[in-house]
Each structure stands twice: as C-alpha cells, then as structure tokens.
C-alpha cells in the first residue's frame, strides 16, 4: 500500500507551470492503492482533502514559508509515484483523466533476468495471493503492481536473528521495476530526464532495452547506473524515447543489494542503521523541459549542476536582530543549450519573499550559448552566470528556538529566456543568514546560539524505508515543537524533502554521506573514489539549504560544547529542552 501524501509539502501531483495544466492540490495522483476503482478514487479524494485540511491547520505557520509558485514556463515536473500521466501521451488532454497514470509500476523479485529490460517483454501478474515473497517457489516471475516509493524488504514480516539486528530475512536482494508510457509528438523536441532519489544499493536503468550507464570512476561499477541509494542520480532518456503518441516506451529498473555488476560499497548497508533497504525507496521524478534549460542539482549522471545561492554579507539593522539593513546574495546559474545552433540566452533572477512578493531583481544577464552535448556541459564549480543581488531590509533566517529571529525563507527564481520568450524557470531556497563558529559557539548573523537536537534512522515499522515525505515533515515538527534546532541523520544522507522541511522549521542538518569511517584508516582506492563522488553529489544537492556541516560522523563543530545531541528521535522520543539546562552530548 502506498502511504498517504499531501501535495503542498511533497508534490505527488503533476506540476506543470503551463496555466492550462496547473493541477490543484486536490488532484493528487500518487496516493492510495494503485488498483483503486473510480468509486474508490472519489472516496480517496474526499479523505485526501480532509487530510490536507488537517495538515494545513497543523502546519499553517510553515506553509507561509514555503516556496512561491514559479513564473510560467514549459518545464513540467512529474512525480512518478503511480506512473506517467495521460497528458504526456496526449498533450491536448485537459479533462481530469489527464492527470491519471497511463499504467502503474510493475515489480518482481522472484527472478533476476536481463530479459526484463526488453521493451517487448510482457509482465504476467502473480497468481491470486501471490506477489513478491522472498524466495517464492513459483517457477515464473511473480509480477505485481506497486506504487513508488517501494521498500523491497517489507513484503513479509522479518525479525532480528541476532542481537543488534540480523539480516537473514531481508527480501530485496534482486528486484525489477517496469513502467510503460507513451509520449505525445508535442514533446518530441523536449528534454526528458528521470531522477531517482533513492535506488538502493546498486541500480541499473534501461530505457527501451538500452542500459544507461553511470559516470563513476570506480571501474567495478562500470555496468551500474548508480551505487548507494541515499544519494540521487538522474538519467537522460531523450535519445531513446519514441515520441509519436502510440509507441509503448518501457523504463526498466534493476536494483540489488549485491550482484556481479557492481562492487559492494562496504558502507550505507547496515541493517541496524536502517540502511539495508532495497528497491526504489524514495520518489522517482520526470522532468520535461525545453532544450535550453537549467539542469537540476543532481550531478550524477549528467556531470553538471544547475543553481547555487548563498548570503555573502549583511549590514546590521540599526535596532533589533530579526532583520538586517541589507544583505548581498550570491546567485549562480548554469544553462544548457542542447539545440544544434547557438542561442541568445537571457537570465533574469528574482528574490521572492514568503508572501510571494518580488523584493529584489538582478540585472538581466545575456550570453550567446553555443550548442552543447553531455561531453561539454559545465561541470566545474565556475558557473555560466554569476551575480550578486542586494536585498534591502531582509528578514533573516535563524534556527528554531532562537531569541534573535525565526527561520524565514525566501525563494530565488532563475528565469531563462530566448529571444524574449521564457523557456525555463528553476527555483532555489534562500534563508538569508551568515554563520561562523569558534570553540564556544556557532554564530548566526553574528549572534551566539546554543544548538539542541537529536538523531534518527530512516525506516519505520510497517513502512520500512519508504517513509512518506509528509512523515518526515511531521518528525521535524515534533523536534521543533520541543525546541530542537539541529538533527543528525544516521548514518547516510537524508532525502531532499527532509532538508526542505529542515529549512522551514529552522533545523540545522549535520548531513552524512555514509558510515564505516573506521575503514578509512586504511581505505581501498575504490572506497575513496566512491566516497568522494557521493560527498560531491550530496553537497551539490544540498549546498543552497541551511545545512550545518557535512561529514560521516560527529565532525569538528560537534566538539563545541554549545552543540547538544539528544537521544535518537525515532527511538526514544524528544525530551523537553529547557534553555538553561546543560545536557551531555551523545554520539549515536
């Protein structure tokens, strides 16, 4: 069963910025049973609206700090929780059915065969009462339709065989997912990308039978699309998709906890750390854009990045600490031109407050951008467009439970135009703040603060690792309600939605890129290479957020006595935190 999601924090609905396709929060397609009938859909929608109203009431103060709607552009972002929607196969469709999936995901873990990658392969549903069963006696593949996220290990209950957590009953050793979809000719000249936020441990992605290999420098992983599922990766399916409105395209994903086509990473796979999950345990998204576009901030496997924003400096206000007289914001943007001819590209940058008001606009920047191919995408830290924008009288971002201010969030709109026509828009989160620290305290906007917080794993009873994004918001809301303002995911990188929630609630994140630090006293060359790649990708994804530090264990700032880490959040609750009470640090 797919957990219930709400659209305003975790957009499982289709999000097209074309006005005639902008779907409301009521049009949620990624929730509930993937086999529900029309009547059940109507009932589900009523319950979804009730749940949405409840969550809005509970989190209304956070909603005010959410990202504003972007300006209109051809960019379409689709959460593939149930599949590719009908309007991708019929661009002219405007009725409610346009939001429904063309087909659902098929899943199988009884057999492991590359024949499942072929577009001509036909799935046969498991017998009644069958389905994934961890060593089924069926002699044939046992396909079943599922929703994404999907934890491959939760098809039957398993118990710990050994103190500290045994792995003998895990079911997700080898898994296959298949998704069928058609593409309208209207998108034949578009760029189509698919992002996998979590495919663990190793993943191979095929489109219409073609394996899309990754970019890792680890030779043993040459046949993998990606290794270690806590860090996202993205693939370009544009060259392989048939966009005629009638041809059945097939996206096939093979995920495994261990196989001959990738090397065991030796970290981010410990059962008792909640890392032994398998399959597509985080969302999968599709992006349809113009050939001139801003790439998403996922370096693997496109070898580029899109946007970065940061506070350069602040001029203090004449009185008070919640605002500043002014602040200078650094905004960096890459724009890809995947046409066959040069394009005159203009970038316009807006900074928008939490109420949707544009409070600062950078001077338009125009460049002639030559044609690009994946081999010459901008891949260094130097951006194509860089500018500094002054925001007057900004509200500053502070951690939760601060006497100096609140975790106020802005949004940066990166608007790309060609010959006066907007062709793409991307957004970045912006909390205006400077941070430094010494041996005693971290300083936010020049003000010393104590940081209190907790730590936790990734999985939940009954859900495994496919935890709804709304639940991640709820976890951080509990921490914030008790006065907490720092969190350490243990021991691998949290989801992007978790970081979005942390921004809004004022929670600093000590973001790890993996565990097994002890092995790095004498590491193998492959371990070092993979770790560096994952660390790079984690930083590129998260660096515009209000993160605290990056590392694999409690790093230097944690030695600061003003940083207090409490009992893990999901294991023993959150204690009340009197501001004056000293508390011992805990290394989870």
Characteristic key phrases:
single chain; 588 residues; alpha+beta; Jelly Rolls; Immunoglobulin-like; TIM Barrel; 7-stranded antiparallel sheet; 5-stranded antiparallel sheet; 32 strands; 13% helix; globular; disordered N terminus; disordered C terminus
Give the full name of the CATH homologous superfamily of the largest domain: Galactose-binding domain-like
Number of domains: 3
Rg result: 23 Å
**Largest sheet features:** 7 strands, antiparallel
Q: What is the mean predicted local confidence, pLDDT?
A: 80
Q: How is the quaternary structure best described?
A: single chain
- CA-based shape: globular
- The N- to C-terminal Cα distance equals 32 Å
In total, the number of strands is 32
Question: Any guess at the CATH architecture of the largest domain?
Answer: Sandwich
Q: Can you give the helix content as a percent range? A: 10-25%
Number of helices: 6
CATH C-level name of the largest domain:
Mainly Beta
Structural class per helix/strand content?
A: alpha+beta
Low-confidence stretches: 1-65, 551-588
Within the CATH hierarchy, at the fold level, what is the topology of the largest domain? Jelly Rolls
**In percent, how much strand structure appears in the residues?**
25-35%
